[in-house]
Design brief:
about 35% helix
Amino acid sequence: MDLLTVTGPSSDDGPRSPYRQELLYALRISQDHDTAAWNTPGAIAASSLQGKPAAQKTPVVHGEHAIDRTAIHGFVPASSGSSLASSSGTAPAVLKATSVPPSCEMPASDRLPELVGNAPAMLDVSRRVRLVARRATPVLIEGPTGSGKELVAEALHRLSTRSRKPFVAINCAAIPEALLEAELFGHTRGAFTGAVHGRVGRIESADGGTLFLDEIGEMPVSLQSKLLRFVESGELQRVGDNETIKVDVRIVAATHRPLAKHAQEGKFRADLYYRLAVFLIRTPALLDHAQDVPLLVEHFLEQMGREEPVKHLDAGAMAKLEAHDWPGNVRELEHVLERAAILAGSSTLITSREIDFGFTVN
């Protein structure tokens, strides 16, 4: 059996392609599907009739990852100008069995699949994600509400060496100040009124993985000092406990506020800001990449079509969307399309009559 094997040292020494982790992720998914298929009763029975045990069909692992090449779909052969892209609806590409050195540049599209948009501003977001994903560097994602900051954080985790560990997200603006400390750091039994049982905090539950602090600009100043201590030392104390716990997490924070300005004005701790903003990624407002509206419309309608027939927009509906200024950004576009799909009823065509922007927020 020909095998496609990805091998190499487990250390992070030496140059690595920014696309390597993305390829490993795709190979793991393909391997899981292949193994699941051979574990079905039909596959086991067919293998028994041929006089071969079903276990022989499972790809043999060499080094870090290995996969039967016949299980790979959606990849095109490496060539000048080629890209790592889906080939849905076509025959699977033929890949030669070869060892892929860690430093080899893997062919891939410039844009990450979860970051829809071909405008330069969106391509720059994908580029920055790939450059920093494999590092332990703290990342601060800045951008207006609804511009996809959590998608960027998830992409950073997916492409990182921590992708098998937890991705834990917490919205600092959604939890009351009195409870946020216990939610982040955990607490012991009896630490405060109502603490009947001890609890592991979000930071500790993300050990080995990625901690996403959404809306970090809303964190109370009194709690920022405790977070700063953890960022500097990697140690935390549960509320009501005197013991310290060592936790290894990669911190990704996000905000829609001008955090650098707030740090200068004393509204946010400057020392914490500089430790979180080691690497900056800015998600653009939809108005700044309005050329991507048709691509985003197609993406969202296809997602909605997973449970019902896919709907399409006529020219009038598309023109109405392109003329809008999108104060709510991509999230608003998604909700407008969902509303339009409901208003269209059983029809698969959405017209300008179904495009309703709702109430304007002043």
